Amino acid sequence: MPLAIAVHGGAGDIPESLRPDHAAGIQAALRAGKAVLQAGGTALEAAIAAVIVLEDLPAFNAGYGSVLNREGFVQMDAGLMDGTSLDVGAVGAIEGIKNPILAAQAVLKTPHILFAKADAEAVARAAGVEFVDNASLITPRRHAQWASGDRDFKVDSGSTDAETIADTVGAVALDGLGNIAAATSTGGMSGKPLGRIGDSPIPGGGFYADSHAGGCSTTGWGETIARVLLARRAIENLERGMDVQAAAEAAVAVLGQRIEGGEGGLILIASNGQIGAAFNSQRMTHAYWNNIDDQEQIIA
């Protein structure tokens, strides 16, 4: 049976100064997920392991290193899907949680799919998820970004500069039993209004998995990604029989064609273990591996 893992660290015009950190981080995340799969772990475990690595690194807009909202503090979103059971767990606008993807996992274990703010935090706390001082998630770079004036987000502005949309993280995995899982985690958009929730915790928008077809995690301008349900669109392309790379490219093409300023990208794994990736931004940090070719590919 094929094994496969793909990870991304965000789409956008990623500054040259951040590329080495992005490359190193994305490789570490890939290897964390790969190790889980090679040890016989599940796709869900592998996707979570990969995302945790990225949430813990300051280079990425998730967990530690999340961007700040208009008020100057962190609020995070995350989503997770098991492609075999079709169970979903997602959280929106949470604070003080070290690894938001673990909060999403806590929700996945309930009969529900999405909780926000204090209610999401309560579910996570009951599950034993680690909490930290919310201020400890702010890095000097993110604070300087906010203090320099990046606090006036307008959803209709069409602005897609690197420091605003880049760095959302995600992972998709396929295990030896044919299970597929997808996970996405983000700090959202810099300067966003209090309580704003983007595409990352929305099934079909920021992530989607169906073990009969494939799994997808997206990144980019959340308001546009959610409107075209980018992740679900990519999976539907696989269901129609498209090659995995063609399916990825066709989904991203719709994002740019249907919505002015629609910018982003995705990673996609098909049920046969083949991997695709596409983006219409200048760059998308991503990496992938399967045991078919047995070669790690790092694109930063």
Largest sheet: 8 strands, mixed
Total of domains: 1
Question: What proportion of the residues is helical, as a percent range?
Answer: 25-40%
Order of helices and strands: EHHEEHEHHHEEEEHHHEEEE
The residue ranges in which pLDDT falls below 50 over 5 or more consecutive positions are 153-163
Number of helices: 9
How much of the sequence is in beta strands?
A: 15-25%
CATH class: Alpha Beta
Count the beta strands. Answer: 12
Rough shape? globular
Radius of gyration: 17 Å
CATH architecture call: 4-Layer Sandwich
Assign the CATH topology. Glutamine Phosphoribosylpyrophosphate, subunit 1, domain 1
Within the largest sheet, what's the order of strands?
4-3-2-6-5-1-11-12
Keywords: Autocatalytic cleavage, Hydrolase, Protease
InterPro entries: Ntn_hydrolases_N (IPR029055), Peptidase_T2 (IPR000246)
Binding site for substrate: 196-199, 219-222
Site (Cleavage): 167-168
Compile the SSE list and pairings.
Blueprint: E1 4-12, H1 19-38, H2 43-55, E2 76-82, E3 88-94, H3 100-108, E4 114-116, H4 117-126, H5 140-147, H6 162-165, E5 169-174, E6 180-186, E7 207-210, E8 214-220, H7 222-228, H8 230-239, H9 244-258, E9 264-270, E10 275-279, E11 283-290, E12 297-299
Parallel strand pairs: 3-4
Antiparallel strand pairs: 1-5, 1-11, 2-3, 2-6, 5-6, 7-8, 8-9, 9-10, 11-12
Helix pairs in contact: 1-2, 2-3, 3-4, 8-9
Explain what the structure shows.
The chain is an alpha+beta fold and 300 residues long. It has one domain (4-299): Glutamine Phosphoribosylpyrophosphate, subunit 1, domain 1 (4-Layer Sandwich), CATH 3.60.20.30. It contains nine helices and twelve strands. A hairpin with a 3-residue loop joins β7 (207-210) and β8 (214-220). α3 (100-108) crosses α4 (117-126) and α8 crosses α9. It starts with a strand and ends with a strand. The model is unreliable at 153-163 (pLDDT under 50). Substrate binds at residues 196-199, 219-222.
